[in-house]
Amino acid sequence: MQIPVINRSHHPLPAYQTAHAAGMDVRANLTEPITLKPLQRALIPTGLFMEIPVGYEVQVRPRSGLAYKHGIGIVNSPGTIDADYRGELKVLLVNLSAEDFVVQDGERIAQLVVARHETAEWQEATELSKTERGTGGYGSTGTK
């Protein structure tokens, strides 16, 4: 699959880091470092603009290394970039650690996963089919 991308950053396009990776690492495109204080969040620009094919989305996911080593996550994880969005891709990072974290220009800040999706229509009903689980919600399947 080919996805048209405008790269207004001075960094390479997102790329898979291993042969069987699902996500491509995307980099921060900054004129100066951004310091995230504990529990602070910020939109980090990437300089990328894309034309995602209809029927697909690009999911923005945290990088496990940043999460484990520094407590850096993504607030709306996974974020979704829709096929009709043409603005700059920005990543909403959050610092969940007790220490400041400095985002540097060119730092790999997130992963992008291209995913197919369906478009659904709601069908109003007055009754739903019965299942063994029924209406059991949060924690209902882990009690045995």
Automatic annotation (TrEMBL):
<dbReference type="GO" id="GO:0004170">
    <property type="term" value="F:dUTP diphosphatase activity"/>
</dbReference>
<keyword id="KW-0460">Magnesium</keyword>
<keyword id="KW-0479">Metal-binding</keyword>
<comment type="similarity">
    <text>Belongs to the dUTPase family.</text>
</comment>
<dbReference type="InterPro" id="IPR029054">
    <property type="entry name" value="dUTPase-like"/>
</dbReference>
<keyword id="KW-0546">Nucleotide metabolism</keyword>
<feature type="binding site">
    <location>
        <position position="76"/>
    </location>
    <ligand>
        <name>substrate</name>
    </ligand>
</feature>
<feature type="compositionally biased region" description="Gly residues">
    <location>
        <begin position="134"/>
        <end position="144"/>
    </location>
</feature>
<dbReference type="InterPro" id="IPR008181">
    <property type="entry name" value="dUTPase"/>
</dbReference>
<feature type="region of interest" description="Disordered">
    <location>
        <begin position="123"/>
        <end position="144"/>
    </location>
</feature>
<dbReference type="InterPro" id="IPR033704">
    <property type="entry name" value="dUTPase_trimeric"/>
</dbReference>
<feature type="domain" description="dUTPase-like">
    <location>
        <begin position="12"/>
        <end position="142"/>
    </location>
</feature>
<feature type="binding site">
    <location>
        <begin position="80"/>
        <end position="82"/>
    </location>
    <ligand>
        <name>substrate</name>
    </ligand>
</feature>
<dbReference type="Pfam" id="PF00692">
    <property type="entry name" value="dUTPase"/>
</dbReference>
<dbReference type="InterPro" id="IPR036157">
    <property type="entry name" value="dUTPase-like_sf"/>
</dbReference>
<feature type="binding site">
    <location>
        <begin position="63"/>
        <end position="65"/>
    </location>
    <ligand>
        <name>substrate</name>
    </ligand>
</feature>
<comment type="pathway">
    <text>Pyrimidine metabolism; dUMP biosynthesis; dUMP from dCTP (dUTP route): step 2/2.</text>
</comment>
<comment type="function">
    <text>This enzyme is involved in nucleotide metabolism: it produces dUMP, the immediate precursor of thymidine nucleotides and it decreases the intracellular concentration of dUTP so that uracil cannot be incorporated into DNA.</text>
</comment>
<protein>
    <recommendedName>
        <fullName>Deoxyuridine 5'-triphosphate nucleotidohydrolase</fullName>
        <ecNumber>3.6.1.23</ecNumber>
    </recommendedName>
</protein>
<keyword id="KW-0378">Hydrolase</keyword>
